[in-house]
Design goal:
Layout lengths: L1 H18 L7 H12 L9 E11 L6 E16 L5 E13 L9 E3 L6 E3 L3 E3 L4 E4 L6 E5 L2 E13 L15 E13 H5 L10 E8 L13 E11 L7 H10 L17 H16 L2
Antiparallel strand pairs: 1-2, 1-12, 2-3, 3-6, 3-7, 4-5, 8-9, 9-10, 10-11, 11-12
């Protein structure tokens, strides 16, 4: 009789665990859900978000220009912080600028405003790390008949690494101002299932609005760039398109894995351009 009672208790316990669901209105459950959607609760996994789209130039009172196509990916892993206080999100990301007519990754580009041929600086951002603490992070969400979207709106305003007085061709302001808008879409049942550590499938829509890029040499010309793309989550680097994997392994093979530990500050297109140009200047200085 005793053994039968114990077996019944274990069965009830297993059933209750299987039925446990995350409450997205709870700050702790919300963060856990975001992490397993964005990456994985297993720190040994390195999921990838792949994204592709178009880049348009905006000028006041003038027609939009389709300047580039792009492909990008972010490879990430999540690591628990000490004391179970949250997560380190450890990532690297690549974005390549492509010719919209041929689809080829660009090395050079003729600026249609200045007719100058310029070197193209692709986005090699390493690291792009974040800290998410329980009680200090909450991802907004919207339920959609069995599907669910989690979204982050990120307005940006911070001192520019490129001061116009020193970089007159590459920067028009002491401040970088822009925005990035993220929308993630997945099945609600997978997101709230406490047993699922890595939610798949997940789709992403991403929009970025910002200044002309430093390597375009636009000076103080008014206008902005609009990036708009869509993509999906992959299990690992190996699931990316072959041409993108080949490009990474030829140039920066470390991008086949997420970073192993947290570091800062994060890399940006502006900081990367400044870093490369200053390194070149040092090499060429007698």
């Amino acid at each position: 009789m005793k053994n039968g009672f114990v077996a019944l208790c274990l069965l009830i316990s297993a059933f209750c665990y299987a039925q446990k669901k995350l409450n997205l209105d709870s700050a702790r459950d919300n963060l856990d859900a975001y992490i397993k959607m964005r990456v994985s609760l297993d720190s040994n996994e390195h999921p990838v978000f792949y994204n592709a789209g178009k880049i348009y130039a905006y000028e006041p009172d003038k027609p939009w220009k389709h300047l580039f196509d792009f492909e990008m990916f972010n490879i990430a892993r999540a690591v628990k912080m000490p004391g179970d206080s949250g997560y380190y999100l450890l990532t690297r990301e690549l974005l390549v600028y492509k010719d919209p007519k041929t689809g080829k990754i660009l090395d050079e580009w003729v600026n249609p405003w200045t007719n100058e041929k310029v070197e193209v600086f692709h986005v090699w951002n390493d690291p792009v790390n974040q800290i998410f603490r329980y009680g200090k992070f909450f991802c907004e969400f919207q339920k959609q008949n069995g599907r669910i979207s989690l979204y982050n709106d990120v307005p940006l305003h911070y001192p520019s690494p490129l001061h116009p007085a020193e970089w007159p061709e590459n920067s028009r302001s002491e401040w970088y101002q822009g925005a990035e808008m993220f929308n993630f879409f997945c099945h609600e049942k997978d997101l709230v299932n406490a047993k699922v550590k890595n939610v798949m499938p997940v789709q992403i829509s991403w929009t970025r609005f910002g200044d002309f890029l430093p390597w375009m040499k636009m000076g103080k010309r008014p206008g902005n760039l609009l990036y708009h793309g869509r993509g999906y989550k992959l299990k690992s680097f190996q699931d990316l398109p072959a041409h993108l994997k080949d490009y990474v392994m030829k140039n920066h093979p470390e991008y086949s894995k997420a970073p192993q530990k947290y570091s800062s500050p994060n890399m940006t297109s502006w900081r990367y351009y400044k870093k490369v140009m200053e390194e070149r200047k040092k090499r060429n200085t007698p």
